[in-house]
Every structure is written in C-alpha cells, then in structure tokens.
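Give me the fold.
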Amino acid sequence: MNKAEREEKARKRLEELQDYERQLHQKGILYIAGVDEAGRGPLAGPVVAAAVVLPQEADLPGVDDSKKLSEKKREQLYEEILEKAVCYGIGQRDSRVIDEINILEATREAMAEAVEKADAMCFARTGEPVGYVLFDAMQIKTVAKPQESLIKGDSRVLAIAAASIIAKVTRDRQMRLYDQQYPGYGFAANKGYGTKAHYEGLRKSGLTPIHRRTFLKNILHDD
C-alpha cells in the first residue's frame, strides 16, 4: 500500500468514525463528549479516563481505537487531539482507591471526573456545557447528562477513539515515570501488566505503593 492509498484508507475510516456523532449533531446537540479509559487490567498503577469533545467534522485522520495504534502514532495523535478538541478532561483513580472500592467503581469515578472537567472547560471556552456523553461500554448514573453506552465504542465513534488515545498516552507516560521511581519491575515497557519481568520484580523486591493488592492476593502474600 503506497502513501496515497494509506491516506485514502485513513480518510474513509475517519468518515466511518464521524457518522454517529454526525447524527447527533443533526439533532441539534452541539457538544458531545466521548469517554474511555485505560488501565483496568494491570497489576499496578492508576486507572485513567478521558473525555473529549471534538468540533463537528473534526479533521483527525488516523485516530482509531488506541489498541490498534503504535505507541509512536498514539503520541503523535495525542498532541493533535488536544490541539483540535473543543474541550477535554482527564480523571484517574490510584491503586489505593482501586483496592478500596474495586476496579469497576474506580473506573466509573475516573470517567465521571473526566466528564466533569471536560464540562467545565467546555463552558469556559464556549459558554455551553457538554450536551451529550458517549461512554465506551459503561453507564454512569452519577453523570447527570443524557448519555449512551456503546459496546466497542472506541472503534465506532471518533470522540471515544480520541478519548481512548488521551487516556492511554496519559497513563503510559505516568508508568514510565513510575519505572524511574520503582526500577526493577519493567513498568516503562509493561505499563503495569503482568509480564515475566514484572513478576520477577515482585519476587525480588515485593510490592510497591502503586501495586493493586486486590489484584495480587492470589499470587503474593503481602507481609
């Protein structure tokens, strides 16, 4: 596939991802937040959520579900998304909260925080609040806005795909910093997931403050 063919493919994919939001815009809804998270499965680190409101017909070819993109591409698109977004918000909950209330509830709290921050930015920039929220496979009753939960929303809706990139890059950057703070676990490479290097670090050095103890209770005994 040559460069022209790749660009054409990206344009067609962009059109597909814009379709859902386009239908909502045609109903008179101005500002639609797409919301997604990163980090529900790792053994260490926070769960991070992002909410992103894009302008109508946002020119963001290449944006897709973050899991389909290389780290280099995600980093590139991260900057472009933040530059072009009407508004955005990031929320997170650390390992302590995850252990206290469980990962699902921590994810809901992080998503609600992200929407709240995006809403405040949207109002500050435009004088209008976020009018509609599209969650990736989640419903959050504490978010008092019209909302939808879309299965595989990060591969169906541009704003959710953009949010998946913002959440993923934000979390990955934090895990690289944690790798410097807690060397020996391979956090820069594994981002807290249970790789061989991570388990070896646990055996040699034990748990760090960023480990999710409820995720490890069947693997290690925390003395």
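The mean pLDDT is 95.
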